[in-house]
Amino acid sequence: MGPKQAWVAFSFIALTADIILALGLLELGYDWYPVALVAGSAALIYIYVLYKRYHVEVVPESDILQFDDVDDLRILSSIYGLDIQGTEKDLRERLLTFARANEDNAFVWVAPRSVISLGSALEVPTGSALATERPADMPSGVSTRGLFGGRTRSPERLKRLRACPICDNRVGKSGGICGECGADLEFYSALSESKVGKRLISEKADGVRRKLRYDVPLLGENR
């Protein structure tokens, strides 16, 4: 079951519970107006949070090729509900296949694994499986790393940065590379301007900050 269908199933359960709770409060003698107001507000807040947090951009092929960190590819795969196992090439191929399958959509629904698991548990088996298309051969590498969304690199963007988007270390005269975690400051700064980028950076930052408690190589170095 895909994220969109999983959210439909989960939302049906959540909104049904909201209605049952409202009916229960009415049975207890509460006035209908405050009950309706609270139940309606809860439903609207749920829908708003759901749309704002889990309706994210589809990263196009050209941008997927800019990611040169396997952790980024793994996190992005997790956000889209794809398999996170395999090598950098495996992860990139799955993401490219996903991007091609959704090239006509600017946004796509994503969901936590718990929601997908719940939706799958409620799904009626059909006895058929979707075939996975193996993507065509992709370029072996990218000569110049661009920025997310086709943005161009600019010294002005670096000047506006006060802290690393990944480890929150204060930005100094580092030539665009964080001296603490080794992140490409401008790349992740541009990435953070998108909804999917904010999710990726949030998950990546948690992992990097945990690693920085120990003596580990900078991002991009051999481990």
Task: Provide structural commentary.
- It is built from 9 helices and 2 strands; from the N terminus they run H-H-E-H-H-H-E-H-H-H-H.
- It has 223 residues and is mainly α.
- The chain is 52% helix and 3% strand.
- Strands 1-2 form a two-stranded antiparallel sheet.
- 22% of the residues are buried.
- Name the shape in a single word: elongated
Main sheet attributes: strand count, strand direction, barrel closure: 2 strands, antiparallel
Portion in strands: under 5%
Q: Output the number of helix runs.
A: 9
- Unreliable spans: 127-143, 215-220
- Count of extended strands: 2
Strand arrangement, major sheet: 1-2
Question: What structural class do helix, strand and pairing data support?
Answer: mainly alpha
Q: Helix proportion of residues, in percent?
A: 40-55%
Q: Output mean pLDDT.
A: 79
Radius of gyration: 21 Å
Q: Summarize the helix and strand pattern as letters.
A: HHEHHHEHHHH
- N→C terminal distance: 36 Å
